[in-house]
Design goal:
The protein is mainly alpha-helical. The chain has 21 helices and no strands. The chain has helices at 14-19, 23-28, 44-85, 88-92, 96-124, 126-144, 150-164, 167-176, 181-209, 220-242, 255-267, 280-287, 290-319, 324-330, 332-352, 355-375, 379-406, 411-427, 429-432, 445-478, 491-495. Helix 3 packs antiparallel against helix 8 and helix 5 (96-124) runs antiparallel to helix 6 (126-144). The longest helix is centred in the first third of the chain and has 42 residues, at 44-85. The chain is globular and about 70 Å long.
Length: 508
């Protein structure tokens, strides 16, 4: 095997000694400069082979464990919908309005904490930050199984939202610092498909754990929270060894492979390889960027329906006449179909670079699905509508996040922007938590109508508007109409413009 392919991080190879590469020297390089190319003397075919091997190595080390973390996260935030079917409200003596309030409070704390979490992730390091928040929310989840009244449930949901806030935006930001722009989409899709898998898995798991009703003097819904919370704590502790830091510090990379990762990011016009120090200018650059807020509206158009769907699908199916365990099991197939389409759309959007068109096409499926739920009372038609609803919602979450990441340059600006976008989307979970009311069953016209509006106006309409505006902006850049922005500026100053650089072409 070529010594350039060595995975050893214990000692430098002869090539590395000769080149003088490694993380220490890289930090001394100028802003925007590249470390020496360890493959400069190789043919294009050999370089492509090494690049494929490096990418496969990154995938195996990063993606599987991160998918597991998000599966656990989504399971923990939505399992209350499954617990509701096995008498949570009756045992705690709470009303439907109080149940919805408990759902809403989670999204308040979750959304308020999100914009800051990516800054904490960058400053505290992923290998510390992610395990810490997992252990925290695992403890919160376990305590949900020990509550005896409405006040206890509210407190547990508030702190659960606070602890979980850093995972989804943090991991999407983290992955965007490892992969090129046309590689990130499929990996974000695989990562997010864990949410759909958790929906399938959650229904099956809840049906099984519900059989423990009465064990240890605890109700079946209580055991759902306790067992899943304990599992989260165990996985959080294991993450101390399974979650790695950013490319410039990741211990599983040899020095040569580290330079390869950093070089490929720079070649993709990304500043993920730079050692930026946080300044408030990055925060304000995100706030003043119109893309931040239009992207937030688009993401809201997918995220509010996502939470309405995932929190209330068992309830919707229950309203079609299916009871308890059967309703849990019937919630599995729509999630499974959504997971498959999510990964396919991630692959398609990476290959075509048409994320806006993918959003628009997929969202139409969701619009049709919820139109079926609104327009028919036949259980078969409505159940088919839940399939189309899932297919129209889940792929757009990962695709929109990737679209935001692709079009936001600068380490901290991207982190802040993703925090705003995801935080605003999740704040709309407050709406999602209150639109499926007991008094509206079995038709749930209010809930289905609100979700239909979000999909049609914000997801479909917002994606179309952003597609047009980005296309117009790219035309200006290609025509040289923005070249005056870099006139007289140094190389460092041009780099710091991020996605405002005239040569930065937006992904459509």
């Amino acid at each position: 095997m070529d010594k350039r392919d060595s995975d050893s991080v214990l000692s430098p190879s002869e090539d590395e000694k000769n080149l003088g590469t490694g993380p220490v020297q890289f930090q001394a390089l100028g802003h925007g400069d590249l470390p020496p190319d360890p493959d400069a003397d190789l043919s294009e075919e050999e370089r492509a082979r090494i690049d494929r091997r490096l990418l496969w190595k990154l995938d195996l080390r990063l993606i599987p464990w991160l998918c597991l973390l998000y599966l656990i996260s989504f399971l923990d935030r939505t399992n209350i919908g499954n617990a509701r079917l096995i008498h949570l409200e009756d045992d705690l003596n709470i009303t439907g309005g109080q149940y919805n309030a408990a759902l809403s409070l989670f999204f308040v704390s979750y959304s308020l904490a999100e914009p800051l979490t990516n800054i904490l992730l960058k400053r505290l390091r992923p290998s510390v930050f992610i395990p810490a928040i997992m252990v925290a929310w695992g403890v919160c989840m376990t305590t949900m199984g020990l509550v005896h009244n409405f006040q206890g449930l509210m407190a547990a949901r508030f702190f659960l939202g606070l602890a979980e806030a850093g995972l989804f935006p943090g991991i999407n930001y983290y992955l965007s610092c490892w992969y090129k722009r046309d590689e990130f989409g499929i990996r974000a899709a695989i990562f997010f498909s864990a949410a759909a898998v958790s929906g399938s898995f959650g229904g099956l798991l809840a049906a099984a754990i519900g059989k423990m009703d009465g064990a240890g003097g605890k109700a079946g819904w209580s055991w759902i929270f306790i067992l899943e919370g304990i599992a989260t704590v165990i996985i959080g502790v294991a993450s101390l060894w399974m979650v790695f830091d950013f490319p410039d510090e990741a211990t599983f990379l040899s020095d040569v492979d580290r330079d390869r990762v950093l070089r490929r990011l720079k070649a993709d016009q990304q500043s993920s390889a730079e050692h930026e120090e946080f300044r408030m200018t990055y925060f304000w650059a995100s706030v003043k960027d119109w893309k931040t807020w239009l992207s937030a509206a688009i993401y809201m158009g997918a995220d509010a329906p996502l939470y309405a769907f995932s929190l209330f699908l068992p309830t919707i199916i229950n309203g079609l006449g299916y009871q308890d365990t059967k309703a849990q099991l019937l919630s599995v197939p729509p999630y499974a179909a959504a997971a498959i389409l999510t990964v396919f759309i991630g692959f398609l959007a990476d290959r075509t670079h048409q994320r806006g068109l993918c959003n628009m096409g997929v969202s139409i499926l969701g619009v049709i699905g919820f139109a079926m739920l609104l327009g028919s009372k036949a259980p078969g038609v409505q159940y088919a509508g839940t399939f189309l609803g899932a297919l129209g919602i889940y792929p757009c979450i990962a695709n929109t996040i990737t679209w935001v990441s692709n079009n936001t340059e600068g380490v901290y600006k991207r982190g802040v922007t993703m925090g705003f976008v995801i935080g605003w989307g999740n704040l709309n979970g407050v709406v999602s938590s209150n639109i499926y009311r007991r008094k509206d069953r079995p038709t749930y016209y209010l809930g289905h109508g609100v979700v239909f509006g979000y999909l049609f106006v914000f997801l479909l309409g917002g994606s179309a508007l952003q597609y047009v505006l980005l296309r117009r902006e790219n035309a200006k850049r290609r025509a040289g109409k923005l070249d005056h922005l870099v006139a007289g500026k140094s190389k460092k100053e041009i780099e710091e413009l991020g996605d405002l650089r005239p040569n930065f072409i937006y992904t459509l």
